[in-house]
Amino acid sequence: MNKIPSNIMALASNTSNKRETVCIFGTGDFGRALGHKLIQCGYPVVFGSRSTQTSSLIPKDAEVLSHAEAAQKAAIIIIAIQRQHYNFLAPLAENLHGKVLVDISNNLKINQYPESNAEYLAQIVPGAKIVKAFNTVSAWALQSGTLDASRQVFVCGNDMEAKQMVMDIVRALGLTPLDQGSLLAAQEIENYPLKLFPMWKFPILLSLGLTTFFFFYCLIRDVIYPYIYENKDFSFFIAISIPNRICPILALILLALVYLPGVLAAIIQLYRGTKYRRFPDWLDKWMLCRKQLGLVALAFASLHVVYTLVIPIRSFVRWRIISYTVSQALNNKTEPLDTTNAWLSDSYLALGILGFFFFVLLGITSLPSVSNNVNWREFRFVQSKLGYLTLVLCTAHTLVYGGKWFLSPSSYRWYLPNAYMLSLIVPCIVLVVKFVLIFPCLDKPLMQIRQGWERNPQYSS
Ligand code: NAP
């Protein structure tokens, strides 16, 4: 008899200011944290617990009753209990009939069980309306109020009214509900908190691998080689010189790797003569993490700027300038200004400054708050056209830096070219292939393919 009125009262919560009682099963960390927050927001809270004794940890305005008694007091029951204990709900099925049960549980592993916890709950209490919510919010964040990074609450369920009731509570707590659809989405929602920077894994592992490779490469060329052949100790290069070599190299390679999958995709589409066949998995995954690759590249470019700014205050650099000046004084000879060198060095710096400026612009436009405010065409213009311009500027910056040393045999040590020469391989390939793809004989069919044209249509009309 109690069930129907409590549901109706809850549905009316939108229209009156009076908050409906919320029941929480479980007085553990999450149950208590959510209880506190709900009471703060004006909801009467009743706990359903195995022990009805209150403790100082339980919010003082909350009632603690047995599960069956507590269930009678509210239309919404939040199950703040681990999945492995859900069996205790089976004998309560009568009391829970018609109630909205909110499953907030998480697992320890991705796809730990064949069905989601919410679907499992629905099997145990078939007469209840199950809604999945709150699992992406931590008890600590609820209690400390540090919810800035995780205001989004994914909500899913098969009953629209039940879902709406839960979303109203989410909103009242100052959080943002995101309707993810039916209960089928629960497994995905449960996996979400277990994912550790999924899109960042490849860019970070790749940059770690490249950093290690270039570190040892530069160590061999710039520290070990001079030590063996010239008996010079340049081990202090490890602190600034080598990092300042690795950072621009990685920034350039990673930026080129942002644009390489697009070029590969174009070649594949031209070759297949259709866009309706899936790309290989590795290419799909690569395309999905281009933003993260670009942001890691920007981080390396920013480090390069900082390392470059400290060059004038390095004691090695000051010593070199002073020695050069003293040697000119001792020889009573002044070197005239080499305007070619001055041009090269100024152009190199100018290209670097402009390249970094556009790099930062790309980074800013990839932020959701900015990208949400531009339309698709504007976004593509910045990320594609300005992106390629950035790649051209940064590649030119490196080319001008290397300049005349490229073909000089003295720049090779143990047959190893300078590290920045290696960094030019990927960007040059990307730019050359992109340049070839711009030719109308390739660009036109590619545009047609991307608009749906097929060379050998699978389904003829
Ligand atoms: P917890 O501190 O271990 O509390 C679980 C509560 O479940 C206990 O306090 C107990 O409450 C009840 N319980 C334990 N064994 C039981 C049994 N055999 N039968 C019936 N009730 C039992 O866990 P929690 O951290 O609060 O997490 C609760 C749920 O919220 C979990 O499913 C978790 O995945 C989810 N969650 C937690 C967080 C978080 O930050 N902690 C974040 C998101 C989601 P009584 O003693 O009152 O009966």
TrEMBL record:
Superkingdom, taxonomy of origin: Eukaryota
Ferric oxidoreductase domain residues: 249-394
Q: What is this protein called?
A: STEA4 Metalloreductase
Q: Could you say which protein family the record assigns here?
A: Belongs to the STEAP family.
- Alphabetized Pfam families for the sequence: F420_oxidored (PF03807), Ferric_reduct (PF01794)
- Report whether NAD shows up as a keyword of the record: no
Q: Which GO terms describe its biological process?
A: copper ion import; iron ion transport
Any keyword Membrane?
A: yes
Residues that span the membrane, as ranges: 204-229, 249-271, 292-313, 347-365, 386-407, 419-442
Q: Which cofactor does it need?
A: heme b; FAD
SUPFAM superfamilies of this UniProt entry? NAD(P)-binding Rossmann-fold domains
Provide the taxonomic classification. Answer: Eukaryota, Metazoa, Chordata, Craniata, Vertebrata
What UniProt keywords are attached to this protein's entry?
Copper, Endosome, FAD, Flavoprotein, Ion transport, Iron, Iron transport, Membrane, Metal-binding, Oxidoreductase, Transmembrane, Transmembrane helix, Transport
State one molecular function term (GO): cupric reductase (NADH) activity
**How is it placed in the membrane, per its record?**
Multi-pass membrane protein
What cellular component terms from Gene Ontology apply here?
endosome membrane; plasma membrane
